[in-house]
Specification:
This protein has 19 helices and 14 strands. The chain has 428 residues and is an alpha/beta fold. It has 2 domains: 147 residues, 3-Layer(aba) Sandwich (Rossmann fold); 251 residues, no CATH class. The protein starts with a helix and ends in a 7-residue tail after the last helix.
């Protein structure tokens, strides 16, 4: 039953391994875990590069490969996993390294994975469902797994894919700086989905179709949603109001949901599929945190550009969404290590970054910081929040404005977005 599928996928594995590869930032860290007795779980949205990342992680090993996202596979009632393992051994030999792609498509996958782990297999799994990272993994693989999140390219990966080498000397030349900022603008508008960049695809057409495909496959079909137009409307509304605040009651009224419970469930599905992130307000008061509106962000800026109904997306909102996704790509978890904040005088801070039990940095995002009124507004909000939260690291991320402001005993760094995005990257 599985023989032809295994052999077909083996050919696909070899084809993927032979293609040019853009090294991912998380590769070095992930390779440290390769020989440990832990299940490596690579998570993220579809088409973000999880499969290729995982294949390259194992490229120096002899390993078996099987993709559960294959239309030729039988229904779950006919899924003989012993037969599958037998066919994998015949195709690949007795290797203990196995890569299972899109494992969430296998019913009761955790029982199968636990069994193979007990038998001594070194497993790498990929999944396109965020619940694997939290609830399912926490209960199924307690203490026996290491999660690795792969999202669309960050800016340094984008530059690598473009063949652009970062250099301090280059950026000191006006024409090179202009070219570099042109790349940043392209990244901010079109996002970082690998196929858009490496294959020079039309970003709007590709990403419009991709979003609808992910919505259908990972949300409507997976959760057997009968009224698919409602969740489509919800996704569209949040994308068109990115970085905006929402409450369940207000959203339900706007979109015509009869039940707030249904709406919350649909929001959860969009989050599980890595399409939408919801950001909570930081507060020491649990009641205030739960009652406060949330802010919505999108996994990739390209989706905003592709799906927005406005003539052109709001540049400031694109920049704020880019900063949010970069914080997540740096292994900060939303609502655990990233929040937004409102001061007692109702001034909003875009991002409050938490380490352990303390807020350690406050970040404002401001595309144009040259306007004196805008600058003073950002400074006032940061100082007020800094005093309330006892935080001294205060930053304003701008398009290309760099300065330091000293006021009321605080130091506020105005920093260009590009500089913040390449922090820690080796430049020639």
């Amino acid at each position: 039953m599985f023989k032809s599928t295994v052999l077909k996928q083996k050919q696909e594995k070899e084809r993927l391994l032979s293609l040019p590869y853009i090294e991912r930032t998380k590769e070095k860290e992930a390779k440290k875990w390769l020989n440990f007795d832990l299940i490596k779980v690579v998570l993220g949205p579809r088409r973000a590069g999880k499969s290729v990342f995982s294949l390259m992680l194992l490229k120096d090993q002899s390993f078996a490969y099987f993709n559960f996202d294959d239309e030729s596979l039988p229904g779950e009632e006919k899924f003989d996993l012993d037969e599958l393992m037998s066919e994998l051994r015949q195709a690949y030999g007795d290797t203990k390294y196995v890569l299972f792609d899109e494992i969430q498509n296998l019913p009761k996958w955790e029982l199968f994975v636990n069994r193979l782990h007990r038998e001594g297999y070194n497993l790498v799994l990929t999944g396109s469902n965020a619940r694997l990272l939290s609830k399912e993994l926490a209960t199924a693989l307690t203490g026996r797994h290491i999660p690795i999140q792969i999202l669309p390219f960050n800016f340094t990966e984008f530059l690598r894919a473009k063949g652009y080498e970062l250099s301090v000397d280059k950026l000191s030349l006006p024409e090179e700086k202009a070219k570099f900022l042109g790349y940043l603008n392209e990244y901010m508008i079109n996002g970082g989905y690998p196929e858009v960049i490496t294959k020079n695809l039309d970003p709007r057409g590709y990403l419009d179709v991709l979003f609808d495909s992910l919505l259908f496959k990972d949300v409507v079909k997976r959760h057997k949603i009968r009224f698919s137009e409602q969740i489509d409307d919800l996704g569209s509304y949040l994308i068109n109001n990115v970085a905006g605040q929402y409450s369940i009651r207000k959203l339900a009224n706007i979109l015509g949901f009869k039940s707030g419970i249904t709406l919350e469930r649909y929001l959860g599905y969009l989050t599980e599929a890595y399409l939408i992130f919801s950001l909570h307000r930081h507060s020491a008061k649990v009641g205030l945190r739960l009652k406060s509106p949330k802010k919505a962000y999108v996994v990739d800026n390209g989706f905003i550009t592709a799906k927005t109904v406005q003539p052109s997306p709001n540049t400031g909102k694109l920049m704020e969404n880019l900063v949010f996704t970069e914080l997540v790509k740096r292994s900060n978890e939303s609502n655990r290590e990233i929040f937004y904040y409102r001061t007692r005088n109702d001034r909003e801070i875009d991002f409050a970054v938490k380490k352990g039990t303390e807020i350690v940095e406050l970040i404002q995002v401001c595309y144009e910081a040259n306007n004196q009124d805008v600058k003073q507004k950002e400074i006032k909000a940061l100082i007020e929040a800094g005093k309330e939260l006892n935080v001294t690291k205060l930053s304003v991320l701008t398009w290309n404005d760099k300065r330091t402001v000293e006021k009321d005993g605080f130091t506020i760094q105005f920093k260009p977005l590009w500089e913040w995005l390449i922090e820690g990257v080796q430049t020639a």
